[in-house]
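Aim 2 progress update. The chain analyzed this quarter is reproduced below.
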Amino acid sequence: MRARTAPDGLRAVDGHAEKEDGVPSERAKKGPRSRGGGVWRSAPALIGGVLVLLMAVLAVAGPIIWGEAAERIDAGAILQGASAEHPLGTDNLGRDLLARVLVAGRYSLALALAATLIGAAGGILLGALPSVLPRRAARMATGTVNALVAFPGLLLAMFTAVVSGLGARGAVLGIGVAIAPGFARLTQTLAASVAGADYVAAARMLGVPRRRILARHILPNIAEPLILNLAQSLGGALLGLAGMSFLGLGVQPPDFDWGRLLFDGFARIYVTPVVALGPAAAVALAGIGFNLLGDALARAAARSSAGQGDAVRPEPPRPSGEPDPDAVLEVRDLTVSFPGGSTPVRELSLTVAPGEIVGLVGESGSGKSLSAAAIGGLVPYPGSVTYGRLRLGGVDVAAMSGKELGTALAMVFQDPMASLNPALKVGGQLAEVAVVHQGASRADARRRAVDRLGHVRLPDPAKHAAQHPHELSGGMRQRAVIAMGLMGTPRLIVADEPTTALDVTVQRQILRLLREVVEETGAALLFISHDIAVVGELCDRVVVMYAGRVVEELPADRLADGAAHPYTKALIASLPDLDTDRSRPLAGIPGTQPAPAQVGTGCAFADRCSLATEQCRTERPELVVHGPRQRVACWEVTS
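Predicted C-alpha cells:
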C-alpha cells in the first residue's frame, strides 16, 4: 500500500466539471490543474531551471557586455594568475580569462544546440523508418539502429570529427552522430506502439504516401517524449563538445568555446589551477542544469495521465443518475485509452459500499489492474482517463488533494518488493506515510509503524521494523505493505492480485487478514484477481470483466450455481476440484481474448462463445438486470 498524489490525468466529464444546473464549478472555470506548476516544486527541477535560465541570459548578454574585454590583448599581463583585476588570470596574450569564459557561453551553447538538432533529426528519421518501410527495408533500418547503439558514442563522435575535418563543424557533426542512435532507439520504440493502430493501417490501405503517414499519423503521436529528450540531450551535447575541444578535435583558434579554454589552460593547471576553474565550472553547471531540467520535465510528463489529449478529444457527458451517498467508491463510465486506438477499459461502472468486499475478476488483459490504476490516478503516460463519475467517500477524486487521496485510498500490489524500497528499512517506510500525510513526528510515526505491523499479525514487529525488505519473507512483506496502508485511515483498499506470488498457506493467511481488516476498520475492499475461486471465497460481490467491459455482476454466494454469462460459466468450469477426472484434459476456454485495439462493435466474447449468434457479432449487449443484485450483458441470456 502506498500513498499517492491526486490523479491529475483524470478528467471528470460530469459531476465536478459542471454543477447539476449546468453552471461551471470553480474548478471548471479555472481550467484543469496545471502540470507545469508541479514541476518546479522539486529542488532538482528548480536548480536546473535556474541554471538553464542563467546560461540563456549569459549567451545573449555575454558577448555584448564582455566581448571587448575578452579580445583585448595586454602584453604586460601575459600568463598571470588570479588577481583583483583578472579573477581567473590571463592567457598567453594577456586576455582576461573570466571575460572569455563569459563570452564563450554563446558559442558553446549554440554549438550544443546545433549538434542536438542534428542528432535528433537524424535519429528520429532513422528510428521512424521501420514503422513505414516494407518488411525487408525495415529490418535493415532496425539493424542499423542496433549497430549504432552498440557502438561507443565517443569513438563514433571522434571518427566522424576526424573524417569531417578538425574544427567546430566536425565536432558538431561528430556529437550529432553520437546522439542520433539514442534518439533512433527511443523513436523506434515509440513508433512501434503507434504503427499498428487502425488509423495507420487504414492510411496504408488508402495508398497514403509513406512520408505523409510518418508526418501526420506517427510523429505527432510520439512528439512529446522526443521533445523532452531534447533537454537532456542538450546537456550531453554540451559536455561532448567541450570534451572534443579539450582533445583538440573541436573548436580551433582564433575561435574559442569552454572546451577550448580548458584545453589552453590545462598546461598551467599544476602552476595556476584557477585558469582551468572557470571553463570547467561553466561546462559542469550548464551540463547539470540541462540534465536536471530535462529529467524533471520527463518525470512530470510520466506522472501525468495524458490529460493533454483531453482538449483534442473531448468526451461528451453521459447521464449517470444521482450519486450514491452511501457508496465508498462510485465509478460511472470509466474509460482508459492510449494513442493508437487502444482502449483497455471501456465504460466501467461499479460501486463499493462500506465494509463490502467486491471482487474484480477476469483473464489477464481484461482491464482489471488498469481499472484499479485509473481509480488511484496511476495510469501511466500517455494513457487518457475519462469518466462520468469517480467519487471516493462522496468526493470527486479529481478534486481531492494528495494528502486526502493518500489517506482515503490504500493500494496493495501483486509484488510487495515493488512497493517497498529495498534500500530503506521497513519501519521507516511505514513511518513516512504518517509524517507526510498526517504531520506526525518521527518518533510518533515510528511507534505507529510498529503498532501497525503488529496489527497485521507480523511476529516481533519491532524487530522487523528495523529490517530491510529483503530480510522478510514474501508473506511478511505483503503484510508490511498492508500495514503501510493502515498507517492512515483508508476508506477504500484496492488489492491488485496481492496473493498471486505467494504459496497456498500464506495466501490463505493474507486473505483472512484482508477480511479482518475490513471488518475492524469498516473500509471497503476492491479485490482484483484472475482466480475466480479466491474471489468466490473472499468477496461479497463479484464483477466479471472481459476485454475491458463488465459482462456480469452478481453476489459471490451465487457464483457457483447462479452465474448466467457464458464467460463466467466458462471460468467456473475451468476450475479443477477433487471430483475432476484426472484422466481427461483440464477444461479451458477456446480462443484468446481480443487485444484492446481489436475489439469489434459486437460482443467481444462472441468468437469464443458456443451460444453466439449474428446479433452477438454485430451488436454489443448492455448490462441489464437478471435477478436480485445481478446484471448480465448477453443477448442469449437476457432475450
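The first helix runs from residue 26 to 30. Residues 453 and 461 are 5 Å apart (CA to CA). These observations will guide the mutagenesis experiments scheduled for the next reporting period.
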